[in-house]
Design brief:
With about 170 residues, the chain is of the alpha+beta class. It has two domains: about 30-55; about 60-165, Nuclear Transport Factor 2, Chain: A (Roll). The protein is built from six helices and four strands, in the order H-H-H-H-H-H-E-E-E-E. It has helices at about 25-55, 55-60, 60-80, 80-85, 90-95, 100-115, and strands at about 120-130, 135-140, 145-160, 160-165. This is DUF4878 domain-containing protein. InterPro entries: NTF2-like_dom_sf. Keywords: Membrane, Transmembrane, Transmembrane helix.
């Protein structure tokens, strides 16, 4: 039998050479993919439920808690928020004679803000944790003087499960 142009012998195309059609795929062939998809879906649902049930604070590392405590203290100064500042400060500091009252706190920080702008913290580094006590180096500067960055060693202590800024 002569071949026409464009015709191809089945054996050359990789298909069966006896003219039989390739069988249609069955559900059995898809089974491994369906199982893998089910495992991935169950894992994703489990992670989602874990994030919904477990509070964000519980998922944060100790270093992140310390960074938040330092940030809260400086943010309270920027916002002249005495209540928030007290909440971010350790009990020993609150009980000291040198801890400012509300009027003094607001006045000192208002003057600083008017002269220098807000406090900006680009980095909190070198966090060292020793039980319920930690130290961190806070790199900061004022809005008005970004080139005069300062580094302050800050002590942070854990009280009743929360990290608080302390002077010693």
């Amino acid at each position: 039998m002569a071949k026409r142009a464009g015709d191809q012998d089945r054996s050359e195309s990789g298909g069966p050479s006896d003219g039989q059609a390739t069988p249609a795929p069955t559900w059995k062939a898809a089974w491994p993919f369906l199982v893998a998809l089910g495992v991935v879906a169950i894992a994703a649902i489990g992670i989602g439920i874990s994030y919904l049930i477990r509070p964000a604070d519980d998922r944060m590392s100790t270093e992140a808690h310390i960074q938040h405590a330092v940030n809260d203290a400086y943010t309270a100064r920027n916002e002249l928020d005495y209540t928030r500042y007290r909440e971010a400060t350790c009990a020993a500091e609150l009980a000291s004679d040198t801890f400012p009252d509300k009027d003094t706190f607001v006045e000192q920080n208002r003057v600083s803000f008017e002269e220098n702008g807000q406090i900006v913290i680009p980095e909190i580094a070198d966090i060292t944790v020793n039980g319920d006590r930690a130290t961190a180096q806070v790199h900061w500067h004022f809005d008005e003087t970004p080139d005069s960055e300062q580094v302050t060693d800050v002590v942070v202590v854990r009280e009743d499960g929360d990290w608080k800024v302390c002077t010693s």
